Each structure stands twice: as C-alpha cells, then as structure tokens.
Amino acid sequence: MEEILDLVARLGPGRRIVAILGAPGSGKSTLAAQLVAGLDDAVLVPMDGFHLDNRLLEADGLRGCKGAPETFDAAGFVALVRRLKAGGEVVHPVFDRGLDLAIAGAGRVEAGHRLVVVEGNYLLLDRAPWRELAGLWDLSVMLDVPIEELRRRLTARWQGLGRSPAEVMAHLENDLGNAELVLRESLPADLRVRPAPIS
C-alpha cells in the first residue's frame, strides 16, 4: 500500500485515474477500498456496474458464464472511463451482489474528486474494446495471485454465500476460467504485486 500511495502522490494535479485489476478472488476490491479510504479526495468506481442484465444474458445463452468479458457492456464502460478522465461530475451504475443486478445512476463521482480508483478484472485485457482502456490509466496495479490460492479463496466465497456443493463447483469453473484469462491476456501493468495468502 505504501508503494501505491507513493506512486499516486507523484501523479500530479488534476483528475487522475488508477486501475486496480486482477482475477476474481485476487483481493482487488479490498485493496481498492483501502486505497480510497486512505485519501480524502478519492472515490471508487467498480467495473461490475457494467454487468449485462441476466435477462440479456439468458437471451444470448451467456447466463452460465456471467463474469466473462462478453457478459459486460464493455463499450459503455470504456465510455465511462473516458468521461471520468475528462473531469467533472459523473454518475455511474453500481452492481448489487445481493440482487444480482446493476442499478443505474447509483454511484456518483463528484467534480472535486481528484483521484478515481477503478477496480475490475479486465482493465488491461488485450481484446477489443477493452484494450482502449490501457491508455486512459494514470497508474495501473495488477494483483498477481496463484491459481491455487484463487481456488481456495473463491471456494470459501461461494460456500460463505450458502451455495450448494454443485453450485460452488459451477461458480469455481467459471471464475477460474476468467482468472486464467486475466493472467494470460492482460497487458503489462505499471505495478504488479503478489499479495500474501489469506489465512
């Protein structure tokens, strides 16, 4: 965290955008929240607000792979980051995990927020249109967590949400496939860190 804060302090004046990315279960949401909590003029914008609605996923036969790159409004997300970069107030959708849907207009970046921390899986994915994001980040931080540690964390996550063993296995298969994609097809980040295992 100290290294990241030091890099953020060097970014200079004006609106700055920091990307915190990694595979599902890597701890990016936790790190991003901690970073924002430590700064007075920072705000968090999760990528998850751009999940496509389950009705669209079902219509396209993608419900079973929710969380894969094609299950997001990627073009809409790129447009949001461009708006954030331009400065001023920006309203954005927020994903409600309990309801399993995105809520439009539920988040706001104020004009006075100098630092916007964006977190998500595909912030450096080398696929269209995701790759357009790479040039928009003032700083990118990739969390590099081994697959076996991800498996352990994700198993605990889904079990903690009361899923059946069969549901846990289905979620794991999907999440680990997405994790391998993030690790394999992400462009280089400015900083790559390997968090300590969670006991």
Characterise this structure.
Helix content is 36%, strand content 21%. The protein has 199 residues and is of the alpha/beta class. The relative contact order is 0.23. This is Fructokinase.
Portion of residues within helices: 25-40%
Provide the gyration radius in Å: 16 Å
Major sheet strand order: 2-5-1-6-7
- Indicate the multimeric state: single chain
The overall pLDDT, averaged over residues, is 92
N-to-C SSE series? HEHEHHEEEEHHE
Organism: Paracoccus versutus (Thiobacillus versutus)
GO molecular function, one term: ATP binding
Protein name: Fructokinase
Domain Phosphoribulokinase/uridine kinase: 17-171
How are the SSEs placed, and which strands pair?
Blueprint: H1 2-9, E1 16-22, H2 28-37, E2 42-46, H3 54-59, H4 74-86, E3 90-96, E4 101-109, E5 115-120, E6 139-143, H5 147-160, H6 165-185, E7 191-193
Parallel strand pairs: 1-5, 1-6, 2-5, 6-7
Antiparallel strand pairs: 3-4
Helix pairs in contact: 5-6
GO molecular function: ATP binding; kinase activity
InterPro entries: P-loop_NTPase, PRK/URK
Protein name: Fructokinase
Kindly list the characteristics that best describe this protein.
two-stranded antiparallel ribbon, alpha/beta
Structure, briefly:
The protein is an alpha/beta fold. The chain has helices at 2-9, 28-37, 54-59, 74-86, 147-160, 165-185, and strands at 16-22, 42-46, 90-96, 101-109, 115-120, 139-143, 191-193. The chain is 36% helix and 21% strand.
